Amino acid sequence: MSRDSLGKGLEALFAAGPESTDRTTGITTLKVDSILPNRYQPRKVFNAEKLAELAESLRRNGILQPVIVTRNADSKYELVAGERRLEAAKIAGFTEIPVIIRSISPREQLQFAIIENIQREDLNAIEEASAYQRLNEEFGLTHVQISEIVGKERTTVSNCIRILKLSPAIQQMIMEGKLTSGHARAILQVPEGMQEDFAARIVNEGFTVRIAELEARKIATGGKVVKKKPKKDKSELISKYEKELREKLSIKINIIDENSKGRISIFYKDRKELEKILEILRNSYE
């Protein structure tokens, strides 16, 4: 399979096989409860609010794009791609769903799941890293081969996998959205024994990735032990303001207030969410 084909995502990968050359055939209907989940699905966290929005869209418009399934060794149907559509269809009350049946290998099943999620930027850094590591360890793919599959640089893939060297406590912070992949890379620069304290400091003090990188260099060169800064309890008023902003923007907000001075940190996970926040802010002063 060529590099160009591998870098184009799901569509190119499906088109690479003889069974997917005719795009007008292969669509059938299956009962939703007869489709098993993809055992190789890298995503572990699903946004309930976005699933509900998709379910409402399916109720209004129907299911316009079939999901992809395969038959496993027990001749049962197993999902390959389209898990959000399948779950939203269940929420919307659909009993049947259009599918395309493909005969694929376990490795391809994992590849398709990774690509589908990465193209929508739905995976957090730990899920993405775990998926890459699985391709490497279970299926023997090199970092270069993985980079070709997902259309990213080899160094990006290698740095992503390195995040899994962090402790379970830090990985949990990443899963919860308290730390970004950029923060994780900064944490990896400091000695292992200092990493959890440094991670806590990043969260407590609201470090940007740039500040975290600068602090990591100081720690790495100075060898100073990073002490976790105690997190001050927020006043009832500050907590109220934080809640109001969180509900207004539907996004994570953190207010740091010390002696009536401080800062407001707004967190977003992708470009779409950033544009949504900017639109709300623009409308507020028009």
Summarize the structure.
With 286 residues, the protein is of the alpha/beta class. The protein contains 14 helices and seven strands. The strands form two sheets. It has a five-stranded mixed β-sheet with strand order 1-5-3-4-2. A two-stranded antiparallel sheet has the order 6-7.
Based on DSSP secondary structure assignment, what is the total number of beta strands?
A: 7
CATH architecture verdict of the largest domain: Alpha-Beta Complex
Shape: flat
CATH topology of the largest domain: Conserved hypothetical protein from pyrococcus furiosus pfu- 392566-001, ParB domain
Q: What is the CATH first-level class name of the largest domain?
A: Alpha Beta
Largest sheet: 5 strands, mixed
Low-confidence stretches: 1-8, 12-23
Helix content: 40-55%
Q: Which structural class do the helices and strands define?
A: alpha/beta
Distance between termini? Answer: 53 Å
Oligomer: single chain
Q: How many H/I helices?
A: 14
The count of domains is 3
Gyration radius over CA: 22 Å
Strand coverage percent: 5-15%
Order of helices and strands: HHEEHEEHEHHHHHHHHHEEH
- List the strand order in the largest sheet: 1-5-3-4-2
